[in-house]
Structures are given as structure tokens and as C-alpha cells.
Write a structure and sequence with these properties.
Elements: E1 2-9, E2 12-19, H1 21-35, H2 51-82, E3 91-93, H3 98-105, E4 111-118, E5 132-137, H4 142-155, E6 159-161, E7 173-182, E8 185-198, E9 220-226, E10 240-253, H5 260-265, H6 271-305, H7 312-333, H8 344-371, H9 378-389, H10 396-405, H11 407-427, E11 431-436, H12 439-442, H13 446-459, H14 461-464
Parallel strand pairs: 5-11
Antiparallel strand pairs: 1-2, 2-4, 3-4, 6-10, 7-8, 7-10, 9-10
Helix pairs in contact: 1-2, 4-6, 6-13, 7-8, 8-11, 8-13, 9-10, 9-11, 10-11
């Protein structure tokens, strides 16, 4: 087998591989001799089938295996001899001339094919000791905790039937049946039976609850409303609708008791224990939000410190995934690029920049993790799998089996674990300053957290699933 490099352009490489006819013949003969004792053909005793007859019967299928094995050997030889780290699987290009291929498959001519590669860029990890990042810290206040428990109590307060003849007031709970129509035609999702509605809660379409104030049990009312322009269901947004509503029951709210008995309804021994649990939950929520913002700052710092050529195929692959999400989101919302005050061309440029950022950060984090010999243990993956399985009650066994039988799915669980470990490692190299802030300040920039999640979605896989 002769392997010759024919192109070296940036991260792109091409090699010409030639397998002489004599070597093809030799490999074919070896393979046929290997199956001689395994095949059974009518008229021949086991192991006594002439090789010439085997070649006539199995020659083409065996030669196909010979060629595939040769391609695999060539790929391995190229990577090992040149110490390459591949960005994607090699692309093999066979001759376009069918006669040339036919002759090679008959071992009457050399087989010549091309292998195109994209390699990972080479770069050094930079010193981050001069980078300073701020970690925002929020401590749950007693007022927040009390307000949360009040909401919990309100959501679980008892309701009692109003006496016959009494009418519904703000704060009451009405039990209703309703049928909705648009332009006289019932619509999907517009019908409900035995629905609990707390008047004044704002849970129904604006104006719906107000028109039920003053109703009695057994009343039938025609409620007219207009769906908001921003309504989630595109086919209903901005439409005028009518609802035939029947009032089946009216209940008034009972005493809002915040005490140990309330705590017991949430599985706590006392009100103090409930407050501690709420404090811990809030603390974890604030810590998660703070981490997202801190991570965004770290990724921004890394992005500004690194500039190197990116594998075009990785960028193209990442952009295709991002762009598919963008188009699906626009379709789901019934919007166009013009509605978003942009054009498709400008949007493509912006999302290509995002794709390039993701790939760059993914490569940086992957190299940082490799340099620090960061690993994700099987036990850690199992814990993540258990957490994922719990998200599908009633389907636990099916989900477990799917992940266990699908390596790529397991890799998608491993990737974020790897990334978080690498982020912790890199954060240890920068100056970190804690800054106490208010809850409002912490959640002021929700877009930053979303962009960080978008960055993270592809950062780890570049390091964890790279074929090289």
C-alpha cells in the first residue's frame, strides 16, 4: 500500500492511496483461503471447494471486504504516521471511472483512492492569572422566605362551599364547565369540565374572570374575550372568542394558616423546618443562577484570549444545528426575520459567529480538560443517568435500556459532566471576587444565562466525542 500526501492547506489534508493489483490479489486469496473450510457448497465436501470456484461464487463480496479493510488500514496508517488528531471522520473518494473500479475488484488493476481529512488546530493554553471575574452572591432574606411560604399556604388553603343564593366574589373559587367558539365554531382546547378557577388570579384569558363575578351556582353566562396577540397558540392569538359557561359550584377561601400544621402538609416536622427547606431551595436556585453568570464571564474571557483556525466541517456542522433551531423557533412562533427586525442574511452571519464561538470554546475546554487529565467516572455517569430516568415516571426501564444500548446518548450525559469539571478547573486559575447583590440584580440579565447554556451545549462534546 502506497500512501502519498497530496494536499496540506491549513487544517485540511489529502492523501492518495494506491493498492497494487498484486496486493489486491494476495489479500483476496488469503481471505478466500480463510473461508474455504467454513463454506458448504453442493457437490463439494467441506474444506474441499477449489479456490477458483470460491472466487467465482464469493469473489466480489469478499473483495468488497478487502477494499473496506484497506481503507480502514490506510486511515489508521495516515493518522499514526503523521500523528494527526482528527476533527471528523475521514472522507474517502473512490475513482469515478466505473471500469477502473471493476478492474480493481477483479484484481486486474491497481486501486487508487483519495482520503480527505480535517485535523484539530494546534494551540497553547494561555495564562489566565491576570483574569478577574466577579461571582454574584445572593443570601435569601427572611422577607423572601416568608413571602414564599405565604404563596405555598395560599396555594394549599382550604375552600368551603358558599351557601345557596350567595354570589361569587374576587378570591372565590368557581367550578365551571365551558365551551368556546371562534366565529361560531368550537376550537381545539376550548372545552373544559369541572375546572377550578380562582377569581382574580389572572390564570385565564384577560377579561374572562371579571365576567364571572356575581354569578350564582347554576348560572349560565356567555363570556366574550379576545385572545392576546402574544398568546402561545398561534391559531388563537388575537382572535375574538365566546364561551358558554355553566357555574357548578362556588367556594370561598378558608383561613390562611401558617403554622406547624401547614409544614406537615409539605412533609416537614415544623414551620421552622419548612423555612429552612425553603431557604436551602432558594440558596441553590441563586447559586445556580450565579454560576451561570460566572460561567458566561469565563467563556467571554476565554473567547477573547484565543484566536486560531477552526475546522470548517465542525463549524458547518454546528451552524447547521443552530440554524435548524432558529428556523424551528420562528416557525413555532409564527414569526419571520422581518418581525425580528433583521434579515435572513444578517441572522445567518450572527449565528455563524455563535457557531464559531461554540466550536472555539469547545476546543479550548477540551484541551484544558485533557491537559489536566480530567475524567468523568462511570459512577458519575450512572448518577446522571438515574437523574434522567427519574424525569420519565412510568417509563424508567425503557429509558434506562435506551441509554445503556446507545453509546451516543450516554456520551451526551457524560459531556456536560466533563464540561463542568473543566470549568471548575479553569476557574481555579483566575482571580475570583465575590460580590453580594440583590435578587433583582442577579436575575437582571436573563439573556446572559441563555447564551451561556447555548455555549455549553457544544463545548464539552468537542472534547469528549472527538473520533481521534
Amino acid at each position: 500500500m502506497q500512501v502519498t500526501e497530496t494536499k496540506s492547506d491549513g487544517l485540511k489534508r489529502e492523501f492518495q492511496v494506491v493498492l497494487p493489483a498484486a496486493e489486491l490479489e494476495s489479500r483476496l486469496a488469503t481471505e478466500l483461503d480463510g473461508i474455504k473450510g467454513k463454506v458448504q457448497l453442493k457437490g463439494f465436501r467441506p474444506g474441499k471447494v477449489p479456490v477458483a470456484h470460491l472466487r467465482k461464487v464469493y469473489g466480489r463480496s469478499v473483495m468488497a471486504d478487502v477494499v473496506q479493510n484497506a481503507v480502514n488500514e490506510a486511515n489508521q496508517k495516515i493518522v499514526e504516521d503523521n500523528k494527526l488528531k482528527l476533527a471528523l471522520e475521514p472522507q474517502v473518494q473512490m475513482p469515478e471511472d466505473k471500469d477502473e473500479i471493476e478492474k480493481a475488484l477483479d484484481a486486474k488493476a491497481d486501486l487508487s483512492f483519495k482520503i480527505a481529512l480535517e485535523v484539530m488546530p494546534s494551540f497553547d493554553l494561555v495564562d489566565l492569572s491576570d483574569v478577574s471575574l466577579t461571582k454574584q452572591v445572593v443570601t435569601p432574606s427572611d422577607e423572601e422566605i416568608n413571602a414564599t411560604i405565604e404563596r405555598m399556604a395560599s396555594a394549599n388553603r382550604p375552600f368551603h362551599d358558599r351557601m345557596e343564593g350567595q354570589y361569587a366574589e374576587t378570591g372565590d373559587r368557581v367550578v365551571i364547565n365551558f365551551t368556546g367558539r371562534i366565529d361560531g365554531t368550537p376550537f381545539e382546547g376550548g372545552t373544559g369540565e369541572d375546572i377550578n378557577l380562582d377569581l382574580g388570579s389572572g390564570t385565564f384569558i384577560p377579561g374572562f374572570e371579571d365576567q364571572l363575578l356575581g354569578v350564582h351556582v347554576g348560572d349560565e353566562r356567555l363570556v366574550k374575550v379576545t385572545f392576546p396577540e402574544s398568546y402561545g397558540a398561534e391559531h388563537l392569538a388575537g382572535k375574538e372568542a365566546e364561551f358558554d359557561v355553566t357555574v357548578k359550584a362556588i367556594k370561598y377561601p378558608g383561613e390562611l394558616a401558617i403554622d406547624d400544621e401547614l409544614a406537615k402538609t409539605f412533609g416537614m416536622d415544623s414551620l421552622d423546618a419548612l423555612k429552612d427547606a425553603v431557604r436551602d431551595t432558594m440558596g441553590r436556585e441563586y447559586e445556580a443562577a450565579s454560576r451561570q453568570k460566572l460561567k458566561k464571564g469565563l467563556l467571554d474571557a476565554l473567547d477573547s484570549r484565543y484566536s486560531f483556525e477552526l475546522p470548517p466541517s465542525l463549524v458547518h456542522q454546528e451552524f447547521a444545528a443552530v440554524w435548524a433551531q432558529v428556523e424551528q423557533d420562528l416557525k413555532n412562533r409564527g414569526k419571520t426575520f422581518e418581525d425580528e427586525d433583521t434579515t435572513e442574511e444578517k441572522a445567518r452571519q450572527e449565528y455563524r459567529r455563535i457557531a464559531e464561538r461554540r466550536v472555539r470554546l469547545g476546543l479550548v475546554l477540551a484541551q484544558a480538560g485533557e491537559s489536566a487529565d480530567i475524567k468523568v467516572s462511570d459512577d458519575e455517569v450512572n448518577q446522571a443517568l438515574i437523574a434522567r430516568v427519574r424525569q420519565f415516571p412510568g417509563q424508567e426501564q425503557q429509558v434506562w435500556d435506551f441509554y445503556r444500548k446507545t453509546p451516543q446518548a450516554l456520551a451526551e450525559l457524560r459531556a456536560p459532566l466533563f464540561e463542568e469539571k473543566v470549568v471548575d478547573h479553569v476557574l481555579g486559575q483566575v482571580k475570583l471576587v465575590e460580590e453580594p447583590v440583590s435578587k433583582e440584580a442577579l436575575f437582571a440579565d436573563e439573556d446572559d444565562a441563555e447564551e451561556t447554556k447555548a455555549d455549553s451545549a457544544e463545548a464539552a462534546p468537542a472534547g469528549e466525542s472527538n473520533p481521534a
